[in-house]
Recover the amino acids of this structure.
């Protein structure tokens, strides 16, 4: 990634000071006497494993809920942030990891929400559209202000979320995993915007598990572990390995994928097409094999995953599982044929947030534990879900707690456990490690590898080229809805794979 120019200035008084902040939830100390500062014109990294307290701090600063103890100062003035509107009035804007846009509204309406311009008492749509166009242009986005958000891709919605935050002209901008759904081009637009905001004196709190970004963008970083402050340091001279060690408190075990031993053909895709965005896709996946699919955002790879998973219905082509034609018109149809789909939107399309961890894991395989008269055998369900949660490393105080109480990494592991318990044959994962920390990411990689070793066919769609290279046995590059290249990790490095994605020849 391109490293933005850094501002060199005399040390200034902190724009944000957090002193002794603590927050407890039932059975959990989320933050314990946290102290930290962020200065104007500084990009300050916030690092920690899932569950370290990062989201809790963000929610306190954003007015989502109050701290139990401690104080917050903005520009030297003590503040008691009452709610999100008050946070905005103080100049705090937050881009959350889980998007907050209203899909039934247009881009311009979302950007102006709560601050709608009026003329003679009526909504001034012309002014609202003009303001949205200006903010979108600042980010270099070719998105129509009048476009409904529901029609945008996840990456486009993420960029609109960032534009919404910038539209408030914040003094403190909090970015929580902002590049998780973005490709390289969109990320570069964001990095340019961050560099400009730094020059304007905006304080930026940057939360990311992508340490290459943290090292390139941030001046300093604070590391949290189990809700406590571990260290705050200038990042000059630091490496990704050293940051990982500081976060985990130990030297991280490096993930090493196994050599595949492909078995018989499981998934066969022939001539798959859909609305001109997917064109004549042909490939196959064997038992024991992990096939990675990557490309620029919007190239068609996500649609391919959804077509295989039954979320979209192809216009043409043939899908076969174990030699039997798959005629799935819904994800439920695909599941009955042994195909499961995990999309990148874990919160919206994956977990059932108000149900327990146990129910979330069990829901796809209830039919396997039905006793007489169709009644689910509760004892068998409890035993099976407990074993699956243990096998997939789900960390929870109890399987009875709502799954929304778990960290993102543990939610993702619970979804893996769900489909393993359903005994699916084909696993289709879209951005499987979005928003999870380094340790959880390596653990998920090992779980996927174990599924493949057990004879499952794995398809991974990811915009993270390093992830594709470390996970995959074969790699398909998608451009303009078609397979543009096929390669292997041994034949190409990250730079070469990026060239293939961009449409250039790999060296």
């Amino acid at each position: 990634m391109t490293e933005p120019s850094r501002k060199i200035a005399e040390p200034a008084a902190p724009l944000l000071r957090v002193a002794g902040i603590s927050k407890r939830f039932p059975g959990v100390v989320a933050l314990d006497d946290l102290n930290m500062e962020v200065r104007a014109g500084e990009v300050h990294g916030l690092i920690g494993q899932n569950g370290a307290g990062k989201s809790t701090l963000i929610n306190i600063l954003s007015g989502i809920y109050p701290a139990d103890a401690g104080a917050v100062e903005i520009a030297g003035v003590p503040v008691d942030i009452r709610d999100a509107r008050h946070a905005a009035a103080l100049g705090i804007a937050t881009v959350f990891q889980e998007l907050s846009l209203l899909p039934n509204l247009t881009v311009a309406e979302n950007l102006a929400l709560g601050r709608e311009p009026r003329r003679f008492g009526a909504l001034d749509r012309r002014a609202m559209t003009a303001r949205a166009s200006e903010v979108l242009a600042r980010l270099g986005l070719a998105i129509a202000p009048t476009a409904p958000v529901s029609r945008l891709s996840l990456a486009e919605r993420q960029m609109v979320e960032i534009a919404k935050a910038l539209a408030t002209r914040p003094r403190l901008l909090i970015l929580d995993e902002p590049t998780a759904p973005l490709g390289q081009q969109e990320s570069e637009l964001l990095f340019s915007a961050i560099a400009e905001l730094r020059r304007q004196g905006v304080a930026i709190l940057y939360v990311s598990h992508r340490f290459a970004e943290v090292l390139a963008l941030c001046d300093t970083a604070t590391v949290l572990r189990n809700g406590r402050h571990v260290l705050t340091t200038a990042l000059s001279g630091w490496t990704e390995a050293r940051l990982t060690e500081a976060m985990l408190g130990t030297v991280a075990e490096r993930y090493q994928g196994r050599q595949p031993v492909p078995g018989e053909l499981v998934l066969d895709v022939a001539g798959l097409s859909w609305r001109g965005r997917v064109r004549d896709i042909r490939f196959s996946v064997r038992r024991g094999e992990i096939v990675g699919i990557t490309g620029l955002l919007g190239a068609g790879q996500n649609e391919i995953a959804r077509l295989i998973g039954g979320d979209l219905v192809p216009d043409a082509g043939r899908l076969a599982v174990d030699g039997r034609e798959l005629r799935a018109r819904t994800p439920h149809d695909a599941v009955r044929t042994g195909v499961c789909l995990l999309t990148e939107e874990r919160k919206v399309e994956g977990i059932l947030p108000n149900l327990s961890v146990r129910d979330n894991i069990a829901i796809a395989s209830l039919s396997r534990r039905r006793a007489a008269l169709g009644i689910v055998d509760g004892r068998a369900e409890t035993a099976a879900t407990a074993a699956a949660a243990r096998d997939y490393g789900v960390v929870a105080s109890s399987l009875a707690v709502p799954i929304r109480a778990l960290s993102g990494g543990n939610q993702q592991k619970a979804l893996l456990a769900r489909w393993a318990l359903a005994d699916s044959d084909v696993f289709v994962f879209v951005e499987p490690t979005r928003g999870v920390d380094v340790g959880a990411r390596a653990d998920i990689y090992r779980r996927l590898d174990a599924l493949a070793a057990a004879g499952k066919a794995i398809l991974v769609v990811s915009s993270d080229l390093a992830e594709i290279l470390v996970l995959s046995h074969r790699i398909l590059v998608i451009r303009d809805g078609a397979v543009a290249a096929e390669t292997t990790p041994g034949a190409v490095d990250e730079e070469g794979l990026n060239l293939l994605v961009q449409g250039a020849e790999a060296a």
